[in-house]
Design a protein that fits this description.
By secondary structure, the protein is mainly α. The protein has one domain. Helices cover 66% and strands 6% of the residues. The chain has four helices and two strands. A two-stranded parallel sheet has the order 1-2. Helix 2 links the parallel strand 1 and strand 2. Helix 2 packs across helix 3 and helix 2 crosses helix 4. The model has no long low-confidence stretch (mean pLDDT 92).
Length: 93
Amino acid sequence: MPSIRKAVGSNVEIILDGGVKRGTDIAKALALGADSVGVGKPYLYGLAAGGTSGVIKAFEILRVELDRAMGLLGVGCVEELKLKGTDLIKPRI
């Protein structure tokens, strides 16, 4: 993601879509340069499990997980996560 952000610059919106199942996935994507994240699978899982209330519950779970991940990283908001992101996420070697 950082190399993509560097290649396209800050004026192009990057939406990560695919493989996002947890709030930590959202935190990683945003920290590494994505502007937003698609959450199709959690939406569909929630819909299949409980209709509209299942979707609401799925989004609540993602929000709690994202909030927890940001807290553990020491950031208080998404803007701060994006600003400090590459310093917070250790790349795999």
